[in-house]
Amino acid sequence: MHHKLWLLGRSATVGGHLLRESVVRPRARVIEDVPISGETLTPQWLTAVLCRTTEGAEVLSFRTENGSKGTATRVALRVEYNDAGTEAGLPTELFAKTTTAFSQRILLGGGKMIEGETRFFRDFRPLVEMEAPIGYWGAADPGSWRSIALMEDIAATRGAVFSEPNAPIGRDQIEDLVRNLARLHRTFWQHPAISVLNDPNYMLQAYLAAIDMKKRCAVGLRRAEEVVPEALHGQSERLWRGVERALDIATTDLPPTLLHGDPHIGQTYRTADGRMGFVDWQVVMRGGWAHDFAYTVNSGCEPEDRRAWDHDLLKAYLDELGDLDGAAPSFDEAWLTYRRQSLFAYAAWAFTIGRATYQPKMQSEQTCLTLLQRITTAIDDHDSLGALDIPASV
């Protein structure tokens, strides 16, 4: 209740900021400014953030292209520098993500995710060797919940093609993704720097404060019944208890590392040279490794492929993870943990297809059905609820 009252008050404050922004439409000019959108940037602001360590460099002009909206507003930037900036090789093909809409600010700010991507690119990305975009700047305004993350435009710089969630993924591609996760996880395994991040239990409570996620998951399970294994029909209460238990295990029982947090197959890409990587680091958090592993494998693989590959994929993940000075789990320990960590992915997609009329449509119905079929089949195949000791009758 306390969080809901806080969010109500913050909503009024954020709404007031948006009203003023719509009238004044301030443009970002100095480094302390947090832009409203890519369209309110200026060469002065880009000079301040992109040329801050290069003496004499200056942004002469820029243009925006290929805009889109979702949980953030996205736009590509093409930047032109003076001779000093060009000679220094400063980035010319960038991508900006901003929170321009009220719903974006409440979702990310209310969930304490407003600085997630900013923090990842600023504090964590430089420390890890993995396939992910490079970040150049990030900032968030605590009053208005305006935010910006300025990063590499990997479509232009690496020839990246973003994964189509409804298409099958190849065996080599999914292994590259789980090895990528392992490189991330081993870098930040019990690392003191991750203590500033939220954990899965906190994130769940933030979601629940903003919306009745449990009810929306029950609605989503009914809407997706045609693709859900029969054994899970009408089991929304039991599945929800599994979600809570799985997130508690990821928070309290497993060694913490840095998690992507929302690594479904639609958040991945393939570069021109065949490397697989992850985008959209807004939900970055600290918690148990299998939260990411289970979400990636179960959302990405068609059921028959997952059945054939998941043992070997887990072995590949553990191989890349390494010994961790004796702290790495054995295969048997990791397999049980994987089985237990399949539930959050179910909640994320049941909630999405089970949205109320006032919620934004974040994904197509077909994508929701495809991913729910993959994820719930994995839950059934692995008896994930039994592995979590969730009784059959509640």
Automatic annotation (TrEMBL):
InterPro entries: Aminoglycoside_PTrfase (IPR002575), Kinase-like_dom_sf (IPR011009). Pfam families: APH (PF01636). Signal peptide: none annotated. SUPFAM superfamilies: Protein kinase-like (PK-like). Transmembrane segments: none annotated. Residues 115-322 form the Aminoglycoside phosphotransferase domain. This is Phosphotransferase.
